[in-house]
Amino acid sequence: MSFSDKELQGFKTLLLEQQQALLKADETGGEAEQVVELDQARVGRLSRMDAMQAQAMSVETGRLRRLNLVKIDAALLRLEESDFGECFECCEPINPKRLEADPTATLCIKCAEALE
Fold this sequence. Notes:
Elements: H1 5-29, H2 45-80, H3 96-101, H4 109-115
Helix pairs in contact: 1-2
């Protein structure tokens, strides 16, 4: 199955929108990933624990954001190279509904289920 130019442009627009949202979130999330200052005179023990937990969650969220940005870049490259929508395992077309839900998908449903 081959996508029309209009469908490909729609996927590209969706990917670029997701990319911009992640980049914007990365700008604001970087501050929350900073190391927590452990000054006992300023903050109580529980508050420090809460701050450390929030910082750890922010670090993981940032890691996932950066991973998604890499996936989006790869999907945009596949669009440019006319490989978009092709399963990496079986080389069959990925269902357009799956790509609408996740335009970074690299496996068809059958191959994705086989890996689980």
